[in-house]
Amino acid sequence: MSFADLGLSDELLRAVTDSGYTDPTPIQRQAIPSVLMGKDLIGIAQTGTGKTAAFVLPMIDILGEGRTRALMPRSLILEPTRELAAQVAENFVKYGTNHKLSMALLIGGVQMGDQVKALEKGVDVLIATPGRLMDLFQRGKILLTGCNLLVIDEADRMLDMGFIPDIEEICTKLPKQRQTLLFSATMPPVIKKLADKFLTDPKRVEVARPATANVNIKQWVVPVAASDKRGMLRDLLRAEDVTTAIIFCNRKTTVRDLNKSLQKSGFRSTEIHGDMEQSQRIAELERFKKGDVNILVASDVAARGLDIKGVSHVYNFDAPWHPDDYVHRIGRTGRAGATGIAYTLVTPDDAENIAEIEKLTGMKIERVKPASGETAREEAPAEKREAAPRRGRGRKTEAEPRPKAEPVAAEAAPEPEARAPARPNPAASVADADAARTGRNRAASRAARRTNRTRAGTARCPTS
Ligand code: AMP
């Protein structure tokens, strides 16, 4: 089935073609015809599936047929975070290029004045986060009685963020006769209740979770002691051909501290978390997208749904507390057909979280047994640490690129041992033997070899 079979207008088809998309994704195939027919819809899908276009495309055609630039907003899209709202707005600009629709982005963290001005001119599409929308309501700046089309996106995340009461209130301010589309990665009872209350005879479409079905993401669990996490992460980052990586932490303070520590170790990293000003977040994100930095340390909320193309690796520095977050986090890689790798550092305290994740995704994640080369140094007393070789702090010294297409068998085979220590590391031997046996576990064997080098005084990376 092609886009042309979905019932979209020629103008829209041109915009889709210009965007470089040839075939609709499963959620687009299933959702677009129903939305065009005016039906309510529950879409069980998450970011990475093409769900944004699944509602933006039919919305543009529906709104394009009506009276544009009406005085009251004609449609409303609710997003849990500012970044997601901004991303949806970008989609409207991209696909709406052949239509004359007006749009207002109502998000926190930016001046309200311009948003109010845009509202006064009249808009076809409002894209808002619940907090800012409620704020404008309370100030009497907005009327939603002309809003016949409502999208509640990422409903389960709205729940996590405590937005459900706001959403319920917002729904009561829209006309009863309207079309409502609700998207959610999961359907917990509260969201089901919300859908029962505010949707009428919805069509339900469900697409496979990218995280469970996406064979393009290679997932690893890395058991590690809590005190060794930073060293282990650095080892993993150095061991592979990391083009771009997102590193997730559970707390904002961890995001900040980890980013500082990575920068100190010579990595080109930046951070994004909920305590930053909106403008700052966007600026850092742009630096990452442009390639000024290649590592983004992020919290869940800040990174939710971000559409950053070509992320080669995702690292869960902290195992996520909620299994759904795992699915969302690793969904940043392996997008739209590309392959990706996801590592989750797991301390003994995280065992339960991992069990929950495996229950949700219905698969056992393979364990790697890397031995961290840095760990030994990190744990050593200060004077011993100083004795470790320092080879400068520059990126060049810390990350000598390995050949990209190194065959796995060669990886797993013992390295020429000229540099190997007299005293081999037992953990390294286990990892190498495993890797040799299974023909996988590349990071493990690399990390293990690095341990040996470090102990032999030939570490390539600077101390931190
Ligand atoms: P989303 O799930 O909306 O976050 O979209 C995930 C990614 O898929 C975005 O980079 C979209 O630009 C891209 N995308 C959306 N629709 C298609 C399509 N039909 N073919 C290829 N990529 C798409």
Write a concise synopsis of the structure shown.
This protein is an alpha/beta fold and 464 residues long. It contains 22 helices and 14 strands. The strands form 2 sheets. The protein has a 7-stranded parallel sheet with strand order 3-4-2-5-6-1-7, sandwiched between helices. It has a 7-stranded parallel sheet with strand order 10-11-9-12-13-8-14, sandwiched between helices.
Features:
single chain, alpha/beta, Rossmann fold, 2 domains, 7-stranded parallel sheet, 22 helices, 14 strands, binds adenosine monophosphate
What would you note in describing this structure?
There is one protein chain. With 464 residues, the chain is an alpha/beta fold. It is 44% helix and 14% strand. The protein has 22 helices and 14 strands. It has a 7-stranded parallel beta sheet, with helices on both faces. Helix 15 (323-330) links the parallel strand 12 (313-316) and strand 13 (340-346). Helix 15 (323-330) crosses helix 16 (351-361). The longest helix has 15 residues, at 51-65. The radius of gyration is 25 Å and the shape is globular. The chain binds adenosine monophosphate (AMP).
- Give the termini distance in whole angstroms: 54 Å
Q: What is the overall silhouette?
A: globular
Ligands in the structure? adenosine monophosphate
Label the structural class.
alpha/beta
| CATH architecture designation of the largest domain | 3-Layer(aba) Sandwich
Number of strands: 14
The largest pleated sheet is described as:
7 strands, parallel
- Lateral arrangement of strands in the main beta sheet: 3-4-2-5-6-1-7
Q: Mean pLDDT across all residues, rounded?
A: 77
Number of helices: 22
CATH fold descriptor of the largest domain: Rossmann fold
Low-confidence parts lasting 5 or more residues at pLDDT below 50? 375-464
